[in-house]
Design brief:
Distance between the termini: 38 Å
Number of strands: 20
Shape: globular
Helix content: 25-40%
Number of helices: 15
CATH topology of the largest domain: TIM Barrel
Mean pLDDT: 88
Strand order of the largest sheet: 4-5-6-10-15-16-17-18
Oligomer: single chain
RNA sequence: GCUGGAAUCGUCUAGUGGCAAUGACAAGAGACUGUAAAUCUCUCGGCUUCGGCCUUCGUAGGUUCGAGUCCUACUUCCAGCA
């Protein structure tokens, strides 16, 4: 079971430490979105220097390239990407269900690669195998995303997600016990030794064979070395959109399951998120960590999330917006490409301690963006990622010293003084 | 000097009798939340009571119901020949 220590609790809100095999995560924490095993435009060194504690990669993307077996061969995600810290993987559900033609059956989802049209199938079991191969510390259950925001579709998706959750848990624990299917020599019983995940075939070989875990529709198997010691953990995903009755059902269902923590499917509206999180997190067991999936473009999401008991967050927006020239400041987001910054020689955000703000002016950033220099995206990404990571770090400090309410009030009043959060 | 060719919205460009005029870039602005995103959208002659009105395709004339498009002259540029 994933170890999670709560240092301070105030209602639903808490500060704690998640202990993963690759290190501790002090929570609340903003997890960097490293979809394809990289945080776009940033090196892992830069990520460490800006204070990032953990990254989240995506099973769907890594399945398409470079393939999950290759990541396993490289020694796992943290090693492959030279991150050497705590890692998460999202199951791939969110991406697969956003593809144009997906065929969903009770068994799983059939889809085509958005890159070259290759056919893939992903099931709860294959998602678990893929995530084990990728080797992230924390995995998400393979969930079924609703095709619309209607109550009916949400409920159907949730019900399937719950049925799939049991299969995820079963496969996850099977993999955790080191049990895989037929080996290349025809032996069909393989056993693990001590949770070290060292697989020994009946014939004594330490090289075990396992089904391809990249979801490709192929028969046969390949031989891989499974001797790397590892512990990996599974989060159930709580769905339900903005419907409180569904959220309640989902939370009640997931709360009873043998999982290490919970992913909470985000809702991309500021309205109602606090109520939704209050319902969900009042039901989920307090002692297990919760990850709010995909939220963090608007700082208010992070404050509301932490206030209602979410421990980790991930979001692509900070780096994506950085690449597009939309940069966070304490007074709200600015578009650095606007003509008014052409000769603004002040720091992007004078109060900011990041590499970008300590060294470069708005005019310089404006120039880099207007001339489409790669460095524009690098510096902007450093800043935006730092802004969000450090904001959540400050939320943590404020929880620990009992000043969260004041910090929240002060931050949000200033940030949203001239505009309202995106709908 | 002669003979061809060319001049279009900041730039390059489409257009060969119905045109406020094509496309790209530049410029101006907006969007982005478990990343098919270094992406996408809008504006881009002036005015407008949103129906239009006015001024535009080197300059000046002409032909025509109608000219960026045809004719004449001029100006500038390019190429070839002297």
């Amino acid at each position: 079971m994933l170890k999670f220590d709560i240092e301070k609790q105030d209602g639903l809100m808490r500060a704690g430490i998640i202990h993963t095999p690759h290190g501790d995560i002090k929570t609340p924490c903003f997890v960097g979105a490293a979809t394809r095993a990289t945080v776009k435009a940033l090196t892992m060194k830069e990520m460490r220097e800006l204070g990032s504690q953990a990254i989240l990669a995506n099973t769907y993307h890594l399945l398409l390239a470079p393939g999950t077996d290759l990541i396993k061969e490289a020694g796992g995600l943290a090693e492959f990407a030279s991150w050497h810290g705590p890692t998460f993987t999202d199951s791939g559900g969110f991406q697969i269900f956003s593809l144009p033609d997906v065929k969903i059956t009770e068994e799983g989802a059939k889809f085509k690669s958005h890159i070259n049209g290759d056919k893939f199938e992903m099931t709860p079991e294959s998602s678990m195998r893929a995530q084990w191969a990728i080797g992230a510390d924390i995995h998400m259950a393979f969930d079924h995303l609703a095709k619309s925001d209607s109550h009916e579709d949400m409920e159907e998706a949730m019900a399937r997600t719950h049925r799939w959750l049991d299969r995820c848990i079963e496969e996850h624990s099977r993999l955790g016990a080191g049990i895989v299917s037929t080996c290349s020599k025809g032996h069909d019983k393989l056993s693990a030794k001590n949770r070290q995940f060292e697989i020994v075939c009946d014939n004594g070989s330490k090289l075990a064979s396992e089904p391809r875990n990249d979801g490709r529709e192929r028969s046969g198997s390949r031989t891989v070395c499974l001797s790397a010691p590892t512990e990996q953990y599974l989060y159930a995903v709580v769905q339900g959109g903005t419907f409180l009755d569904l959220r309640q059902k989902a939370a009640e269902h997931c709360a009873t399951k043998a999982v290490d923590g919970f992913g909470i499917g985000g809702v991309f509206t500021a309205d109602g998120m606090d109520e939704m999180l209050r319902v969900v997190n009042s039901i989920l067991p307090n002692e297990k960590p919760r990850h709010l999936l995909g939220m963090g473009q608007e700082p208010i999401d992070l404050f509301v999330g932490a206030e209602h008991g979410c421990d980790t967050f991930d979001c692509v927006a900070p780096t994506r917006m950085a690449r597009n020239g939309s940069l966070y400041t304490l007074d709200g987001r600015i578009n650095i490409k606007n003509a008014k910054f052409r000769n603004d020689f002040t720091a992007l955000m004078p109060e900011c301690e990041c590499e970008c703000c300590k060294n470069y002016s708005r005019a310089y950033l404006h120039h880099l963006f207007k001339t489409d220099e790669i460095t524009a995206k690098v510096l902007a990404s450093i800043h935006n990622e730092y802004f969000v990571v450090s904001t959540v770090d400050k939320i943590r400090s404020s929880i620990l010293d009992g000043t969260f309410k004041e910090y929240k009030q002060e931050f949000l009043t200033r940030y949203y003084k001239n505009h309202t959060p995106a709908k």
